[in-house]
Amino acid sequence: MPSAALPAALTRGPFSVADALRLGVPPSRLRRVDLVAPTRGVRAKDAPASLVERARAMAVGMPADAALSHVTAAMLIGVPLPARVEDPGAPLDVIRASARTRVRRRGCVGHRGLEAREVQLVHGLRVTSSADTWVDLGEVLDRGIGLDDLVVAGDFVATTLGALEPLRAALARRVRPRGGRALAASLLEVRPGARSPMETRARLMFTRAGAPAPEVNAAVTDRHGGWLLEGDLVWRRQRVIVEYQGAVHAPIEHRSRDAQRRELAADEGWRVIEVFKEDVFHPGRRHTCIGRLLRAVADGP
Questions:
Q1: Which of 137, 171, 189, 301 could tie 239 with a disulfide, CB 3.0–4.6 Å?
Q2: 88-98 pLDDT, tens digit each
Q3: What is the pLDDT of residue 1?
Q4: What confidence tens digit (pLDDT) does each residue in 173-194 have?
Q5: 49-55 — which CB contacts under 8 Å span 24+ positions?
Q6: Does domain 197-299 have CATH number 3.40.960.10?
């Protein structure tokens, strides 16, 4: 093997120093400047640039019985989190069973309690299950996660799993979990079926203002039972629909289709209210939007 060459098995991604030595790579080669050390005992040809790459490098150095958890697991799974929490350069959350030594190494935060959690593979990595990861978010409220963020995350997980029960079961498995009160309170507001974080936040905005709970992403039909549209939030008895207008609705073809759907629904006696991001976050627009919805559901058909 030429002095500068590495075995082919070590060129596909991060590798452990121990594996390299077993394959006959001299220690001096592992100190060359063309290799980086993402974490202790690990080398790679290139510095990890993304969260997945960082997690893969960390996984090489982690004990085999460890898993990625908490905020790291949520980001890998795709659970929506507030921007202030989603830092791809933050230390990675790593968890082991309570009977094992907590992982302590540069670039990670060690946790214990894996025996109370299920593990799944995400991007080929051992990661706590989505339901257990949702419960773990209650342990890191100090990182900037609030009640509404837990509901948004819970909606995503319940929608992905197709039911609310896995979240209930994951929370019930824990004994006096940190953030338990916030998790229990948010679970009361989690609804499977939500398609986006902003749909969830709009629903919370209306129900907390006194509106009855709407159906989520529900089919709306005409008087003959023919399909008209799928409403983001539907108050069926009052014949009111709320449509959240996100970036996906910006192209002209989407706007044209949405306009036609609104007109067809109006012909059938439905009132369609459009909601935008500013209606949720801007105080003045929020007040106006809530008032418009409350009047609509109060008037009814």
A1: 301
A2: 889 999 999 99
A3: 43
A4: 998 899 999 999 999 999 999 9
A5: 50/88, 51/75, 51/76, 51/88, 52/76, 52/123, 52/125, 54/88, 54/92, 54/107, 55/92, 55/123, 55/125
A6: yes
